[in-house]
Amino acid sequence: RKEVEQDPGPFNVPEGATVAFNCTYSNSASQSFFWYRQDCRKEPKLLMSVYSSGNEDGRFTAQLNRASQYISLLIRDSKLSDSATYLCVVNIYGQNFVFGPGTRLSVLP
Amino acid sequence: ETGVTQTPRHLVMGMTNKKSLKCEQHLGHNAMYWYKQSAKKPLELMFVYNFKEQTENNSVPSRFSPECPNSSHLFLHLHTLQPEDSALYLCASSQGQGGFQPQHFGDGTRLSIL
């Protein structure tokens, strides 16, 4: 089983739609979690950290479910500019960050 | 604006050339990383430096040689590369190796081997 798994997509959604991605991780000792977005041929950019109690940043909501070992990202009111690949990152303190393969999102007009 | 700067942005080189990629971070971080990303593939971790000491070499061929003179600078020396080495090379930094703070990436160097 891979350390971090994501549905590669693509998720094709119309503008204004709500879309959710999940990311599962295999190591129960994982301690910190992040979502990044990566545009085509560009570097990954931090979207948000994921906190145990869940957190929201504008249209984006991140959740952590330790019991089932997954994190989620919810995007409300999708914009064309949200089209990108969304990377899940998991970390155990003192070890390396582990990146998921990414989920591709296309928001259609 | 990124606190991690990579140069050059683009590099085309022949298989017999020697070149170096440079990364500089202005964030006061202690850990720096090199990643490779081939077209439509996930990030591959290459090297990790923590407080200037190499802590990870992810089975990278010796034609890639990293150098970390201080916590703010990281180099990747390239020599006799192969066409399959064409990729986006990304540098990242973080407060500690695998800490609770996230990594920050540079814009990357797009490398093409002729």
Can you lay out the helices and strands and say which pair or pack?
The complex is a heterodimer of chains A (109) and B (114).
Chain A: E1 4-6, E2 11-14, E3 19-25, E4 32-38, E5 44-50, E6 55-57, E7 60-65, E8 70-75, E9 84-91, E10 98-99, E11 103-108
Parallel strand pairs in A: 2-11
Antiparallel strand pairs in A: 1-3, 3-8, 4-5, 4-9, 6-7, 7-8, 9-10, 9-11
Chain B: E1 4-7, E2 10-13, E3 18-25, E4 31-37, E5 44-50, E6 53-57, E7 64-70, E8 73-79, E9 87-94, E10 104-105, E11 109-113
Parallel strand pairs in B: 2-11
Antiparallel strand pairs in B: 1-3, 3-8, 4-5, 4-9, 5-6, 7-8, 9-10, 9-11
Query: Which H/E pattern describes the elements of chain A?
Result: EEEEEEEEEEE
Q: What would the average pLDDT of chain A be, to the nearest integer?
A: 94
Biggest protein-protein contact in the assembly: A-B, 23 and 22 residues
Task: Average the pLDDT over all residues of chain B and give the rounded result.
Answer: 93
Query: What is the N-to-C order of secondary-structure elements of chain B (H for helix, E for strand)?
Result: EEEEEEEEEEE
What does this structure look like?
- The complex is a heterodimer of chains A (109) and B (114).
- Chain A contains no helices and 11 strands.
- Chain A has strands spanning 4-6, 11-14, 19-25, 32-38, 44-50, 55-57, 60-65, 70-75, 84-91, 98-99, 103-108.
- The radius of gyration of chain B is 13 Å and the shape is globular.
- At the A-B interface, strand 5 and strand 9 of A face strand 9 and strand 10 of B.
Task: Sum up the structure in keywords.
heterodimer; A: 109 residues; mainly beta; six-stranded mixed β-sheet; five-stranded antiparallel β-sheet; 0% helix; B: 114 residues; seven-stranded mixed β-sheet; four-stranded antiparallel β-sheet; 56% strand
Produce a short descriptive summary.
The complex is a heterodimer of chains A (109) and B (114). By secondary structure, chain A is mostly beta strands.
